[in-house]
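Ticket #4471: structure output looks truncated?

Reporter: J.K.
Steps to reproduce: submitted the chain below (262 residues) through the standard prediction queue, then opened the result file.
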Amino acid sequence: MDHAREDEIGRRARERFGPRADAYRESPTHAGGHDLDLLIEWLQPRPAERALDVATGGGHVALALARSGADVDACDITPEMLEAAGRLLADNDCTATFAVAEATGLPYPDATFDIVTCRIAAHHFPDAQAFFTEAARVLKPGGRLGFQDQTLPPEGPSAVLTDAFERTRDRSHNQAYNVDGWVTMIERAGLEVEHTELVDKRHDFADWTSRQDCDEATVASLYEQMSEAPEGMRRWLEPGYEGERLVSFRNRHVVVLARKPA
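Returned output as attached by the reporter:
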């Protein structure tokens, strides 16, 4: 990837998430749910294992790993996010080691971690394949990757428009993929996929837009895009209305457990 474009994507992410770190720490969508429970259940972290949470955001996965007794490192490109995550863990009497780091260039030696996680973040990365390659590199043989991110509908036009809908709300959104796309990249990194499951996360539209401080023009554009959405996009997002007002929609995520061959 062009380094200038990669730097621009990272700059946009820091600009968007720095001022909104506390909003993401407090976000119910990120703080818990069946998806987070499933991720931890599949990973089965054990005391004294080393775990790395990449793009930790508000720190919710790092907290869940720390509660299991794992020795947790957490990284993010946004310092304000790391500060918010640190407060979350401290408020829950847990600890982790935090570092500012790019997901596509992790500052850790080969075969360091038993577990690597990344939840609801990789759609911001400038090069998701490079992240999976890095995750495989820092995992020990037999180590586990726990991954979650939003997915796209199978129909090509609906996939493009669904991704554009997300990007309208958040300029730091780079690229989401369908389930096969995410799984293919994980396998190309040399990891063996053991489990996948689609989970639904329903968004309150007003909360979803306010978390990114969307102005009236952006909200109006999102309304218009949803009203003009093709059938595949509407079926995927399942918009909910009160009268003519868009009040909610469904976000479909894939949760993946993969393992580095021993």
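Triage note (M.O.): checked the attachment and the full token line is present. The domain at 3-259 is CATH 3.40.50.150 (Rossmann fold).
Status: closed, working as intended.
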